[in-house]
Design brief:
Chain A is of the alpha+beta class. Chain A is elongated. Chain B starts with a helix and ends in a 9-residue tail after the last helix. Chain B is mainly alpha-helical. Chain B has 2 helices and no strands. Classes of the chains: A alpha+beta, B mainly alpha.
Chain lengths: 707, 49
């Protein structure tokens, strides 16, 4: 390897990049590091690409970024995604087609305004010179797709497009050689240009949504510290871990592999994998799952399964399998093409045969047939779907709803059942105090000091509340955490404690959510009640969905007591204590009943269910697995986007249908003229652009569809 | 006719020049981070690309 090539590239996701200052801070902070050749933040995709010397490990770079003050997660594959390249190829083709269309049209207008004889022939030759390379290059996306469809003995929208463009170009070349009056170069190239606009918009929409949703394995542990037989430790990537290795897991770290605890007592938060909100204690001999979070104390783990054999990888596989049914979905444009393509080709063939029978020469008959193909070429049809969907997706984006692709909008319009996960979807997924905290100011400062010492969700929630009240933490000594019970410490010679009510001598507690008890100084034991607040507009959204004809069901992995009050308040039926596979099964049962399910969920445990639903949505607070499995992601604390998205998708479907009607109606008017042999290249160009404009204008009505 | 002989090639060449410039800027990654480009002018120091 040469000196310049001795450099590796790694990409990190940086969710925290929000402003110009962040970009400068990260780039300037990384550049002085030895071994870093180049660091460039991409603000749009919220990533940083670092070229570095091979000695630097991704983990060292991650720590360096953490020191600058940003949370960074490495992305497994640094190679640009295939879809990204596709989008660029389309943009290149669009640029070439635009150049060709403008220049050929310039020449064509001169011919239409009366150029004759040698000038006309010269202009036709010049048009051919520009148009033929343009068609050869810019037509490739259509030719390739048409060819692959034909090879599988199917047909799609690209087949009539390809045939129309190629025939029109070939015939125009023949006309030019013969010195004939009509050449359709402008029609062929303008057609490609219009269609590429639609195709590019479609692809751009997919890219934009995908940028917000990256890297499947981000939430799970990238690797862990392995204890080697000689007593030394070494950091290894999750993929390099093997069974029977011993893993050291610090408090606050996620398990990088499935295993059995050998040493240490702690609590684990399994919410990522099971959806269970409350952490549970773990002791030697008990199993731990990859992806779950170690909360209290360091643990030594003997690995039993690693890499793609862990339970988390199993969930991802289940997700992939569940998502396959969706790949059979045929988009509305291709469904239209199934009827459209044979009809158009039969029509062109019939007009050719008709003119031959009527005694015209094969030359004139072919000219008529090509005119029919150009007039019926689905220019407006090709724009009808993508333009409507892009306008609708733009309107939804302004409301904080990211739609991943056009087919998601089509499927969203078809949904007639809505399934919701509970934690993080119907609720906010964060614990907030149930009523004011019954603590005096000195007690608050003791409670804050204790709460800060633990990663337990209740301690975190308590610390967040107290910090927002600007409480100063007291100083503590002899702080100890008892896994599964609570924390205790000494302050000014007295014992203070925060933990389970039963541990502090209170046996019976009435509350709708989790409760933590606090004992400090001379005061009696206080109960602090918390609950996971429902999204404020949830009941209203459930009612609106019902009015729109969507029956609502809650699918939760949580316990019955936690789900029942919420299901009652929003008025939905609920299934509880479901495993990830159980959720998939529930959805498949509904789909077998002939319904289309909209699944809304956020956790890793919802991943397979999100993939199994006919269409799915996830809040932006969702785990990455949830976000990447979902067709749409919505921002904010409200649930209203779910109903808005469904309503907008239905409006879009209506406009798409209108567009189809407009385009087909236009054809119905123009085709008789073409068959009668009255269509000149100028008429064809006018008909084509005006029908496209009409469809565009109609689609723009969707600008305010997100209500 | 002689005017056309000069002007038409000139028009085509200018168009081709624009096309080449666009394709170059696309390949050079100038459209990879449109939001970032707008924000970067706010940073004080001159960052190297």
């Amino acid at each position: 390897m040469t000196e310049a090539a001795a450099s590796e590239r790694v990409e990190f996701v940086l969710p925290g990049v929000k402003c110009a200052g962040c970009i400068a801070k990260i780039e300037n902070g990384l550049r002085p590091l030895s071994g870093v050749h180049r660091a460039r933040v991409n603000f749009t995709t919220k990533r940083v690409a670092i070229d570095h010397a091979p000695e630097l490990t991704p983990d060292a770079l991650r720590r360096a970024i953490a020191e600058i003050g940003f949370d960074a997660q490495p992305i497994a594959a640094a190679a640009p995604a295939a879809e990204d390249r596709e989008s660029k190829a389309l943009l290149r083709a669009l640029a070439v087609a635009g150049f060709g269309a403008m220049n050929v049209m310039l020449l064509s207008v001169s011919v239409w305004s009366g150029a004759a004889g040698a000038t006309r022939d010269l202009f036709h030759w010049l048009s051919a010179l520009v148009a033929m390379p343009t068609v050869a290059y810019a037509g490739q996306p259509f030719f390739k797709s048409a060819w692959s469809a034909l090879r599988r003995r199917r047909t799609n929208m690209d087949v009539p497009i390809s045939i129309g463009v190629i025939l029109a170009t070939a015939l125009s070349l023949f006309e030019t050689i013969e010195g004939g009056p009509h050449a359709y170069f402008d029609g062929a190239v303008a057609l490609l240009f219009f269609l590429l606009v639609g195709r590019y918009l479609d692809s751009m929409m997919r890219d934009r949504a995908r940028n917000g949703v990256t890297a499947l394995m981000r939430e799970t542990a990238p690797g862990g510290t392995v204890l080697l037989p000689d007593g030394t430790t070494m950091w290894k990537r999750a993929a390099d871990l093997e069974p029977s290795m011993r893993l050291l897991v610090a408090a606050g770290e996620r398990f990088a592999a499935d295993g059995v605890v050998e040493e240490g007592l702690s609590t684990v938060d399994r919410s990522l994998v099971t959806g269970e909100t409350m952490p549970e204690p773990i002791a030697p001999g008990e199993p731990a799952l990859a992806g779950t979070l170690n909360l209290a104390n360091p643990l030594t783990l003997r690995v039993t399964a690693a890499g793609d054999r862990t339970s988390i990888a199993e969930i991802l596989r289940m997700m992939e399998a569940a998502g396959q049914s969706r790949s059979f979905y045929v988009r509305v444009a291709d469904r239209a093409a199934r009827f459209y393509a044979p009809a158009v080709h039969t029509l062109a063939l019939c007009s050719f045969a008709g003119w031959m029978l009527a005694g015209a020469g094969w030359h004139q008959s072919l000219l008529v047939a090509v005119a029919v193909l150009i007039i019926t070429c689905p220019c407006a049809l090709g724009l009808a779907v993508p333009v409507s969907q892009v306008v609708a997706a733009g309107a939804l984006m302004r409301k904080g709803i990211l739609i991943k692709d056009g087919s998601a909008l089509e499927r969203l319009a078809e949904a007639d059942r809505a399934c919701f996960d509970k934690t993080g979807t119907v609720t906010i997924g964060k614990l907030v105090p149930d009523g004011p905290l019954t603590l005096s100011t000195p007690e608050k400062s003791l409670a804050l000091a204790l709460a800060r010492a633990s990663l337990h969700p209740l301690s975190r929630a308590l610390a967040t509340v107290l910090e927002s009240e600007q409480v100063e933490a007291a100083s503590l000594s002899n702080l100890r955490e008892h896994p599964g019970l609570g924390l205790e410490a000494i302050a000014d010679g007295t014992r203070v404690a925060l933990g389970r009510p039963a541990w502090l001598g209170i046996d019976r507690v009435d509350a709708r959510g989790p409760v933590v008890a606090f004992r400090g100084g001379q005061g009696s034991t206080r109960l602090l009640r918390f609950f996971d607040r429902m999204r404020p507009d949830a009941p209203e959204v459930f009612r609106r969905l019902k009015r729109m004809g969507l029956e609502t069901i809650i699918l939760s992995g949580d316990r019955r007591e936690a789900v029942a009050p919420i299901a009652q308040e929003v008025g939905a039926t609920a299934l509880v204590e479901l495993t990830p596979a159980g959720k998939v099964e529930a959805i498949q049962r509904i789909e077998r009943g002939g319904h289309r399910v909209l699944m809304v969920g956020d956790g890793l445990n919802d991943g397979p269910a999100l993939a199994a639903g006919h269409v799915s949505m996830a809040p932006a607070s969702a785990t990455d697995v949830g976000q990447s499995a979902a067709d749409a992601v919505f921002l904010g604390d409200r649930l209203a986007p779910v109903a808005i998205a469904v309503a907008a998708a239905r409006r879009t479907r209506m406009v798409v249908r209108q567009n189809f009607a407009l385009a087909i109606g236009y054809n119905a008017l123009a085709v008789p003229l073409a068959i009668a042999g009255l269509v000149t290249p100028m008429l064809a160009a006018i008909a084509m652009s005006s029908s496209s404009l009409l469809v565009l204008a109609n689609s723009l009505r969707l600008r305010n569809c997100a209500r | 006719m002689s005017g056309l002989g000069l002007l038409i090639p000139l028009a085509l060449l200018l168009g081709l020049g624009g096309l080449a410039a666009f394709l170059w800027s696309l390949n050079a990654g100038q459209y990879d981070d449109l939001d970032g480009a707008g924000i970067r002018i706010l940073t004080d120091e001159d960052c190297e690309p």
